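The passage that follows is intended for readers who have already worked through the single-chain material. We present the inputs for a multi-component assembly, then the predicted structure in tokenized form, and finally a short commentary. You are encouraged to pause after the input and sketch how you expect the pieces to fit together before reading on.
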Amino acid sequence: MKTQYTVRRAVEGSQLRELLQDIAPQFCRRYLLVVRSGLGTSQTLHAFLSRLAPSIVSRKQASEWPGTQLLDGELADVYEGELSHYATETIAASVGSLLDFQQPSLPEDLSLLREDGSPWLITCAHEGDIYLELSDQEHQELQRLAPWFARLL
Amino acid sequence: MLRLILLLTVIWLLLPMLVSAEPSVLPAAPLRMAFGSRCAKSPIPCNRIDYFTAHFHIADVVLLPSTDSRGFGATVGYGASMSLFHRVEIGMGGTLGIWNQANQGVVFQNGPALLNVKGVLFPLLRNPVPDSEFTFGLQLQQQLRIPKFDGTNDLGSLTPLTALRAVADKPFWRMGITASLGFLLTQGRTDSELSTSLRIHLPWMSRATVQGFGVLQGLFGSRNTAPLRGGFGLSVHFAWDNGTSLSGGYVQGRGDGIAPSAIYIGGPDYHIGRETAEYSYSRPPIPNREMVPSPWPWPWLWEKLKQEWTEAELANEAHRRDDDWLTDECFLYEDGKYDKPLRHLGKRDASGKFCDVGGQLVPMDEPLREVGSELMPVSAPSGPQPNLPAAPAIPNSSPATTPAAADPSSAAPQKSKNHRERREHKQPQSDVSSPKAEQFATGPVMPTQQPEASPSSLSSPVRPERPGLSESATEFARGFAKGVGEEGRQIYQDTKELPARLTKTGREIVEDMQAGRELRALAPLHAMERAVRNASREDVERVAHGVIAATKEWLDKPAYEKGESLGRATTSLAADAAMGVLTEVLGTIGTLRKIERTAEAADHVRDAEKVVEKAAHATERVVGETARRHTPDQASLIELAKEGQARGLSRTDAATLKQWGAEYGVPVRGPEVHPNRSHGKKPHLHVGPVDHIPVKD
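Having made your guess, compare it with the prediction:
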């Protein structure tokens, strides 16, 4: 049984780096990024994806990803990658905030997935919404590992 | 792995040839290392068994300092075993003894062949998890004397021997205690053995174990056949995630027939298979999982192989799925720094040898230099410099003579992407000047402008002749750029002082500032842009009307001077408003109100002109932003979206808006839902700045 915990304040800068490089890998093994049609792309988006390419393991078209369901048959490109140290460093170096994940500048809606594929952190950037789905045990673990971050929930 | 097996086989076959024909007896032999691949290479047996592994050890060396009965010596243990389900481990092996014997020189002895089996009996009905719960097990070792393996057994006699041990183990915290009771049975002699150990897993290195132990033999039986002897010692064992392990220890022996001191050097060992059901010894490293680097080259080789394999797999997958972006896009890199591209250039052409940069073919993988906006091969002749883009560029035609001219969609088709980019780059300047010309240049003041009579105009680069409309716009743009530049530098200085101004806003923002986000002040600028974009038309008009009357004097200035002051005002006002958003959280309309109040305060401020200019610029900026951000089509679409926000849209209308958004360049998200969230859990649409437009079924 998992509970949703909304991140009540933007995580930026050094905190974002710590979240991506130190905290998340304790729980997660994969990440998701979405490129939606009709929102346009940019050089920065392509450059960002090219930098992440070594960590990307799949790209598929889907109408649903953590936090969002598209209606009326619309599909988006969903990229899944290994949450390696390289990937987290690339992501952390490319954005100032998780809410920066909006097209056309960047892919949309970074999500971090556990080893079993279930989402741990969900971002819906255009809604300004970031939240975590945690079990009680994970919540306690998060409080132990990163009390500053747990206080934002 | 094949080589390792072959090596073991060779050792198995050749070692007996080194042994002398007449078996010798190693005087003062050490306590034998206990059987078990995870037993920390001490004489103490253990119940720890892997889930499913094969294990090889080829050099368990025990160094034996010289005693009265022999010189310096050593034993080398070797063998292999297999573990099954944390339950059973079976194996075979042997020990080669080498020592210096007086009058005999170097003597070899190959000990008996060792057949081992051990099993955990408790818990019985489920697989025990190593080092986590109490276990009880039995171990049986058969020391067989066969040709070439005919050395002495553990009791020092040249006979077969059977050793049976019962072992109990109880882990607690980061420690564990083991106790063992054993019997050694051979022809005409029976001995007993009692041993115990206390181990601790180092907190900062969970794969390392330190163990203190003691062994006592000869508890039962006659003094002649089972003399009392034993030893105590300390061992350290390191195991790596990849399955190798090393250990070292020291045993101090006491009693008849036992080495008084022995130095144990265990390993290297190799494990292949699964340490537990979840973790494989051959698994790739898991990010951020606690891991001790291995001293052996295998993990490095494995990592290199894995990396090559992954990249090849990605490339193949990309090729299979026609992922153009992986292979067909080209980016500009600084020579020698290929980890991060400078910018995206375009797509590779059909030959793959050139990159199509807005129609210009740039050779791939060749040194380039930038000449203006063009990329030229280094080897290419320099020739005349291409036309550099003027800064600011001079428009070819009268700007903004009609509203449609501000509409990029109505512009003539561009020849190349570069041209488009240049035009887009110039657009803010011309956009600012365009509505200005439309609103102010057509006012009654403009015709009375006399640049010659103005002292300031003499010192400015404005031509003495009365400027035409296009020239005026050009000069205005130049002045605007100068003003923006100068004011920008001032803003940068102000930004450095911003942390002090933010102290009232709370600790969190200050923390972010101190964390090095020196340009944080720019984020609210973006927020203000959104505020202006989201402002209603009435808001804009009201602010504009309040300001226009006060700008009459300002409008009398020459274009350059006007542009310069407006440029300063633009930048400073933007920063002021940005700081307002940041420090006072005024919100969207609140920011405009602040601007309006600034205009009203003009009469009470000594430097009224500057304040009025600011306010005037505010109007310009608002109108300019609106004109720049939204073409008439886009504005109409956004108006429709706002209407839809109030009453909702049908699926058909939503699809229509989405289609128009694609046509007019307005980003449209949805229809979509965000399940289980308080916002957006019902179908909705986002059209440009208009959010959460309900979509009805």
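Commentary: Chain B touches chain A through 46 residues (CB under 8 Å). Chain B has five domains: 2-274, 297-326, 328-377, 403-629, 636-694. How closely did your sketch match?
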